[in-house]
Amino acid sequence: MCAPEPSRCAAVCPPAGSRGTVPDMDRALGWDDHLDEVWSRLGRPAAHGTPGRVARIDRGWSTIWRSAGDDQPLRVRNIGADVAVGDWVVVDADAERVEQVLERRSAFVRRASHEGDRAEADVLAANIDVVVLVHALTAPPNQRRLERELVLAFDSGATPVIALTKIDAVEAPEATVAELSAVAVDVPVLVVSGITGEGIEQVRGLAAGGRTIAFLGASGVGKSTLINKLLGRDAMATSEVREGDQRGRHTTVATQLLALPGGGWLIDTPGFRAVSLWLSGRGIERAFVDVFDLMDHCRFRDCKHDREPGCAVRAAIDAGALDPARFASLERLVAEEAALEDEQRRQERLADRRGGRPEPDASDGE
């Protein structure tokens, strides 16, 4: 079922065949008019045939598909190339390395979480149409994590959808659905089961017309079980979650592009605990549209939403119409993004002073 408003799901499922006049073989792999325009602007380079799509990345190697159902994919080096699963790339004439990555029409990007990284982007999936944010009904609802995921999803350029899994394992999901829907304004919320198949056709419909959907979520939320149900086979390893905290082990070890029966593509990603923001476009505004709408009604344009008279935000909090925790979350995310922007500007200044070479940070003891 789709909660709370099934009709909203149609907004992310436009009719099949709306992809223009791109050749059927290319469209079946996810090629579209935007990518064709990008390729044309570059002069339609094809050192080793037409562009291919990255289906998997393994430690400096990319598996490249040239068509849907490709049974002889290329395996080439991607060292030095900013490449992610879902990208369209041009391979060099010797079919040894990625020579060029075509401009992405969308990308789910977070800040790299590895220790020591400073303001570096981690692209989890590229050229996606729908980002499916997966949460489990068996775990306590995590509004703050979902808010962060929604910011990244809106900034990706794809359409966010929320999938609440394991409906077969709970008796009364309504409270969890309502709690997460409260911070997902105008975002479709699907309730599904990878065991019984409930809601599976709605998820499958997101990929209709050759679209690409990407699954993102923490370990143990049931992504792999859900994907196996969509594929109709046990393609992904699954594991039990711990009883104490409902956390699971990482069963997906590499991001990969998977063909869905009946058409469309799915990008599965390893579960991740940290949801660190990358530089936002309007992701924060769209994820917190209800709060920004209130801000528009404050008496003063520069209202700090603290003790100013005529503050619509404070009035909503006092009236119980706005959860103060949601407003506090917004303030934290805005501050986090501002700090990231400052850090990037500092790194750019240091690089400029050294003629483009990154300068060691003082915190490294150099």
What is this structure's SSE topology?
Elements: E1 2-3, H1 24-28, H2 33-41, E2 52-58, E3 61-65, E4 74-77, E5 88-91, E6 98-101, E7 107-111, E8 121-126, E9 130-136, H3 143-156, E10 159-165, H4 174-181, E11 189-191, H5 200-205, E12 212-217, H6 223-231, E13 256-259, E14 265-268, H7 283-287, H8 289-295, H9 312-318, H10 324-353
Parallel strand pairs: 9-10, 9-12, 10-11, 12-14
Antiparallel strand pairs: 1-11, 2-3, 2-5, 3-4, 5-6, 7-8, 13-14
Distinctive features:
Rossmann fold; SH3 type barrels; Ribonucleotide Reductase Protein R1, domain 1; 14 strands; alpha/beta; 27% helix; 3 domains; 366 residues
Quick description:
The protein has 366 residues and is of the alpha/beta class. It folds into three domains: 2-14 and 112-268, P-loop containing nucleotide triphosphate hydrolases (Rossmann fold); 33-101, Roll (SH3 type barrels), CATH 2.30.30; 288-356, Probable gtpase engc, domain 3 (Ribonucleotide Reductase Protein R1, domain 1).
Strand order of the largest sheet: 1-11-10-9-12-14-13
Query: How many β-strand runs?
Result: 14
Termini, distance in Å? 57 Å
Strand residue content: 15-25%
User: How would you spell out the order of helices and strands?
Assistant: EHHEEEEEEEEHEHEHEHEEHHHH
Judged by helices, strands and strand pairing, the structural class is alpha/beta
Just name the CATH architecture of the largest domain.
3-Layer(aba) Sandwich
Number of domains: 3
Mean pLDDT: 83
Measured as a percent range, the helix fraction is: 25-40%
Anisotropy-based shape: globular
CATH topology of the largest domain: Rossmann fold
